[in-house]
Amino acid sequence: MDSLEHLITRSIKTYYKNRLYAPIIFLLLLLVLSGVFPIWHLLIPKTYKAEDVSLYQIYNNKEVYARFDLKNLYFTGYTSKWLDNTRGYYYYTMLNSECVIVLLTPDTCEQGAPTIDEVTIKGEILYESQAARNLLTNLARDLNWNEDGILSTVSSYTISEPDATGITTQAFELFFILFAAYSIILIIVCCIFIAFPVLSIPVQKTRAYGKPSEILAEAEEELATLPQLATEDMFITEHYFIETSSYGVAIVPIDAIIWIYKYSTMHKFLWHHFSITYTLYITAGKRHYIKCPKNIKSDIDGIMDYLAEANHDILVGFSEENRLKVEEIQNDFDIIRKISGFLSKRV
Known about the structure:
Elements: H1 7-18, H2 21-36, H3 39-43, E1 47-49, H4 55-60, E2 65-82, E3 85-95, E4 98-104, E5 115-127, H5 130-142, H6 147-153, E6 154-160, H7 162-165, H8 167-195, H9 201-204, H10 212-225, E7 229-230, E8 234-236, E9 240-245, E10 248-253, E11 257-269, E12 272-284, E13 288-295, H11 297-310, E14 315-316, H12 320-330, H13 334-346
Parallel strand pairs: 1-2, 4-6, 11-14
Antiparallel strand pairs: 2-3, 2-5, 3-4, 5-6, 7-8, 8-9, 9-10, 11-12, 12-13
Helix pairs in contact: 1-8, 2-8
């Protein structure tokens, strides 16, 4: 009896403690990736003014992505294309007495404006970009300049706005933020449920039958004093069916149960059959569904027999007839009928 004292509360805490591992590991993985790769600079880039920029220093500090306040940019006449689409226009400007090639998106430069007095962009710093080298080679040929001379005059570093703001980069930023936010929210929610089990989802689902805190207290008391039937992780008390497995926790008033049935699963690897387990499915009022997987047949049969005896209105076994009865009892298609009736009247 001592082991059943506050078993539901302890099971809820254990369940959500186990669910903490995955988001914590995933969040740590994201933090490691952000440390190895310049993800933080991509998400929260620093802003640099043209007269204070040292691309060499920024690049060597692994700060590949940044914001730049640029002035007096001049169009080179060359563009960057991808699959017959113009992804950017090449400009040159002076950054801290150094001539730098800048690739701007079509929207930023208004489809290749001859000059741009001032602009602020988010860009990626590229070192010895092959595209920039080809640009300078062609530019030297067009102007009848010496290729080595123009290469020595222009910085080996280029700034590319499309590489920092393209669809692929934006998608990566979005998913990184969403995954990080999801992990953090899941950790916070699990911690709240561990600290306050009465707020957890399994307990709050009982709101359809009364006050969750009172139902939890009554179920705990009945389970601790005199359970009517007990298996490894399923219990029946005077008024409740209770599940406390590693797959979830559930509390359901017996008089609210509508339908119960079992489903068998064959476990095999290649051609070898290992075992058969059984899953108990319970449908209760207010569209409350409980699934108790990986149990043995005798336990499931004992639970079903006891529930059927305790509540003669329970439908036992899976059949089309029972499924249709449950649909009628639950009034599953009531919303669809209302919407259909409303649309018919409007038409």
